[in-house]
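Exercise 3.2. Students should predict the tertiary structure of the chain below and write it as structure tokens, then compare their answer with the key that follows.

Predict this chain's 3D structure.
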Amino acid sequence: MKKLRLFTPGPCMIPEDVMLAMAHPIDHHRTAAFRAMLQDVTEHLQWLMGTNGTCLTITGSGTCAAEAAIVSTMTPGHKALVCRSGKFGERWGKVCDAFGIANVKYELDWGFGFKAEGVRKMLDENPDCDTVIVTHSETSTAAVSDVQSIAKLARERDLLLIVDGITAVGAIPVKMDEWGIDILITGSQKALMLPPGLGFVAVSDRAWRRVDEGSTSTFYNNLKAYRKSMDNFDTPYTPNNVFVRGAQVVMHRLKEEGLEGVWTRVAACANATREGAKAMGLSVYAHDPVDSVTAINIPNGVDEGPLRKSMRNKWGVQIAGGQDHIKGKVIRIGHMGYVDRFDALAAVSALEFGLLEQGHKMEPGAGVAAAQKVLVERLGNK
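Answer key:
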């Protein structure tokens, strides 16, 4: 018997009760029952994102949600500083370019997160920028940016801050209102433990004033249309009501565990994985590692493709490889969502088996022992 455990940084493993909820017969979406369900999901999104602002559910991926946020706020006359140190930061710059939105690209080497000092310097050099776009957790590099300090800077300068929280929300601390984030986005297939297909956008009152000041050429991704429908907890276009039903179950799961509990669990699994990797003689790729996903450098003498294939086909653990210029050089292991301490140990164990199969010199069991030590220290008997 072989059980598949999914550790890719999206899509992530889905709990059984969530899958069963989505397997119920489909209902019509223009009903009081759907509106009540969407209202419940929306109120839980506010809790999850730490905001009293408007939370919108869009049928589409996280990129769909990000495009909606960018295009709806970046109307003619505005200019963005786009922070790019991985595939997804680069994507938000491409969205700006595709819609003719004025922007300046702030580049860092992959694996590094953005800090307020660097953003401040770029803004000083580009005083016409009135918006900052930053990725909190860069999924492609497993690096984290200091969004809290960047948000403080943005408020000091009366700038709008748009944050990609796609592998942050529900995995690591994110406090939208407390920190001063104007727009926060995420997607269903990450820490929210659903299939790909829903994007979520939280919008502050400051951001709505920006949206209302201008007009945008986009149709489906126009945030004004979603806000209007949300007056009655409805959607302007056909929603994926099956996934909304699943989201309702997920939200109640998360509420039961509590945000602090979620953040503690994810951090423990991430640190256990990183310490396990080090005990196997490996190194972590990111200079500023995030807890939602870990990128690990492939050592000399190990072939990344066969390693991942063997981990999946022989030991039932599916992980991800690198992207762009780090493809074949790193592996990525997710810790978000439906991942507990025993899943983390399984991932480390499968990695050990795969490395030993390729002749990597290490003490069998060293990685698992190091990982278990962290889990005991971090979680105890909780």
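Discussion points: The chain has two domains: 5-10+258-379, 17-257. DSSP finds 14 helices and 14 strands in the chain.
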